[in-house]
Amino acid sequence: MPDGLFASIQVAHWPFAKNWQHLAQDPRHVFLEVGANNHELERDELDLLLQDLPGGFLISFEPLLDKYGFLLAFSSAGNNASVNLGLQHRRGMVLPYAVDSCSGDTAVFHVAPLDGCSSLRAPTSDFKTQNRETGQTPEGMSWPKWVEDTCSRLLERRVVPCISLATVIGEWLGGRHIARIKVDAQGSDLDVIKSAGTFMNRLRYVSLEVQSRLAAPLYHGQASCEQVLQTMRHLGFQVADTRKLGAACNMSVPELDLDFVRREVAFLWRSFHREYAYCRVFSASGACGGPHCLAPQIPAQVNRTTCDSVQDELLFEPVVGMALIAIAPECTGNVQVERSEGLGLVVRLHQGGLRKRTCPVRSSFIPSLHGPMVRIQVGRGGALHGRLVILPGIVSPAVPLSNASMALTHFMDATSDIDVELLWPEPCSALRSEFRQQLTSQYAMETPLENFCAFAK
């Protein structure tokens, strides 16, 4: 073990529940992140996860002290106010631990010239040679030269605190389910998951970084992609997005994130990635460990809300855009639209039973200069009727008049030959007079739902 100066400091409160005592209610969902790198962690994904999903709490682990300090600074950036111990976010904290099946309280951490390549595992001693030889084979690929220069060389060894997932879940969290764990441990990802031990079934959604079998291994003794898949199956997981299974180990890049769900809840995830392909951030925060996802580019979120049937709740935030729902006649009663807080909308889609979906859903996302558009088809067959168009924010008073007018004109031209119903989640009295005149030239104003302004052609 390297020589050095060591300091014992308090990094969190105990009992662990004191770390969220500032919240009105205990967290309903817990998220873990192992390996937090500041150039990736611009908080886009994590802020979405914590803000769009009320009731969540994130625990991040980062053993490099400068990166640990960087993450803590998120809470205090721009002011001199005191921050609760360990918090990096009102619903998130960071701790300076490496995560592994530790043989003691500490572990040796191998620091690379590029901090994002640092790992509990040492770099492969002849990586440069292997990388060049692999790149010259017909099927192989090479890591970029900057990886050779900055990731394959050991800068120094440091002694860092070490903790296992079994301790985190069993002792700290009292056996809670983990709705999502994201691991980026540079060659040690599988070791992190295995450290859950007897609490393995508490992990519901796991995101790991795996390496293509076509690339040279960067770290000594790291698990191959095939070993990761085989071990995760043995531990009770299966690939969440089955579209990726066939090409998982033959990916066209040296490494890629691969997501897994517990086998017991996999039936709730069936077809979810196909139905909502525009989703980007996933967690098992739905009912019974079912899927929840965020689509930040829209922005919207989808939540599977039942355990014994397939019912999805889509929440659209106020945006300059629209959602076009095409409903088969037999599925008209399976779609409900309600107003959410602010100018958002909630759309509930009941697909049917777990084994037989009478009203399956297909959806797609279309980026547009006039705002994002989501197309949702409910039901089977090509002859769909009863099209329902939802405009969450396209005519919002908060949108500049010129932008909204252009988007509205574009929409009216695009739907001139379709019978549609327009809903806006505000009373018609709040609608700009310019838009009322523009809409009533083609649509009749009606009020089918409370607090909605509605127009029908």
UniProtKB/TrEMBL annotation:
Methyltransferase FkbM domain location: 34-239
Gene3D superfamilies named among the record's database cross-references: Vaccinia Virus protein VP39 (3.40.50.150)
Pfam family, one: Methyltransf_21
InterPro entries membership: FkbM_mtfrase (IPR006342), SAM-dependent_MTases_sf (IPR029063)
Protein name (database record): Methyltransferase FkbM domain-containing protein
